[in-house]
Amino acid sequence: MIAKQQLYDELINDPILVASDTVYQNFVDDKQFTSIGYLQEGSAGFKNSTVIDGFLYSSIKTADSLCKDLVSEIVLLDSLLVDNSSIILLEQRNDLIDDLNFYHQTLQNLINQNHIDSYYIRSGKQ
Q: Are residues 41 and 59 in the same domain?
């Protein structure tokens, strides 16, 4: 069973080899809708869905880090506002909240972009 699975994986990733011999074509056709074919398809989909390029990963980590820093600054301002409800502190807090909303939306967009990219990779769509 393992040898058949490995052969199927090799053939499915090498269409030229499959096209070179009807034995290979028949083997792939016979296994496509069996547990071997479904396992290969699921494994390929999982691999593609967990792949993320370095730039996107870095962008997500940066946006996440900025969100955490902004939350810390907002908490600090909140503690200052307990004793001093100055309009300047309130304006700074509101500006930080606006920034936080912006970076949070950026983070969501980056995550959604990864889901979209993964969908297109898995489905083979351009």
A: no
Three-state SS for 66? Answer: helix
Q: Which domain holds residue 114?
A: 54-123
Pair 32, 69 in one domain:
no
Structure tokens given for 111? 């995550």
CB 77 within 8 A of CB 37: no
DSSP designation for 34: S
Cβ contact 103:70 at 8 Å? yes
Both 43 and 90 in a single domain? Answer: no
**Confidence class for position 65, pLDDT limits 50, 70, 90:** confident
pTM, 2 dp: 0.48
User: What is the chain's length?
Assistant: 126
Same domain, 29 and 58: no
Can you state the angle between helices 2-12 and 22-31, rounded to 10 degrees? 110
DSSP 86: -
